[in-house]
Amino acid sequence: MKTVEDLERIRKQAKVMTKLREGGETTKVVVGMGTCGIAAGARETLSAIMDELARRNIQDVIVTQTGCIGLCEQEPIITVERPGEGKVSYGKVSGERARKIVASHVINGQVVGEWVIPAS
Amino acid sequence: MRELSLHILDIAQNSIEAGADSIEIIITENESSDTLTICILDNGSGIPAEALDNITDPFVTSRKTRRVGLGIPLFKEAARAAGGGLQIRSAVGKGTEIKADFSLSSIDRAPLGNIAETMALLMVCNPEVHFKYEHIRGNTKFMCSTSSLEEILNGIPLGSPGAVSVIRSFIDGGLEDIRVS
């Protein structure tokens, strides 16, 4: 059984992570996890992103989720936002594509042009 | 959806969007009564009574971007196809309980699938939400909650990418232990 102190410590840790998420200084990756995203394979996409970040021991990238943004036919969709740069949204992001986007864009700042969803 | 664990991920996302900071997922497999029950309980904003009546209608959604919502209708259909059904109880300001039951042996029942992956990703990507996952098989039970993870993670912060594989293998191992012989 956990003590109140244990729970308090976990809560504090979660708060630090939340604060990190809200800060604008880190790279953000947002994964579409609405029904359409999940049906199209977003769980595998999210899992691949987390795995690739873990494998490279990257701690300062924030991965969050969002719902349906009305582009269901492009799901799974991920959006990458590096500090001081604009948001870039990618479509039909399989696990394999997600790994390449993490390596190329998230870590090295090179947008993977062929998978970017064109602004309509 | 190919797996029931994907429906669980989808419904839990609804709970998170409803502002829940506590989400319980209880899966019960009972061979003697041939039932599989999935219960998702949250303390989110709840659903108003007038919306509850038609929530399983695909053309009803609280979303503003598009006027159809498929999450709950799809889950209901998966249950119905496997000889079961779906019930929702909700109170505004208190939370929501969604319960789906299936015939365990029905050939039309989707497999539970990678529930360890669903739970690990939910827990790591939402460290501010307290998750509790309980899996009952016959008279054996496996339980894993956000508050019990610290020991398992052994210094790895809950919200960090490296936590996913640790939690996933912990859950897989726990489910292996309660496999009905």
Intertermini distance of chain A: 54 Å
Name the CATH superfamily classification of chain B.
Histidine kinase-like ATPase, C-terminal domain
Number of helices of chain A: 4
Per DSSP E runs of 2 or more residues, the count of β-strands of chain B stands at 6
CATH fold group of chain B: Heat Shock Protein 90
Plain-language structure description:
The complex is a heterodimer of chains A (120) and B (181). By secondary structure, chain A is of the alpha+beta class. Chain A has a single domain (24-115), classed as Glutaredoxin, CATH 3.40.30.10. Chain A contains four helices and four strands, in the order αβααβββα. Chain A has helices at residues 4-22, 35-40, 42-55, 95-107, and strands at residues 27-32, 61-66, 78-81, 87-90. Chain A has a four-stranded mixed β-sheet. In chain A, helix 3 (42-55) packs across helix 4 (95-107). Chain A is globular, with a radius of gyration of 16 Å. The N and C termini of chain A lie far apart (54 Å). The model of chain A has no long low-confidence stretch (mean pLDDT 88). Chain B is of the alpha+beta class and 181 residues long. Chain B has a single domain (4-177), classed as Histidine kinase-like ATPase, C-terminal domain (Heat Shock Protein 90, 2-Layer Sandwich), CATH 3.30.565. Chain B has a six-stranded mixed β-sheet, with helices on one face. In chain B, strand 3 and strand 4 (95-103) form a beta hairpin. Classes of the chains: A alpha+beta (120), B alpha+beta (181). Chains A and B meet through helix 1, helix 2, helix 3 and strand 2 of A and helix 1 and helix 4 of B.
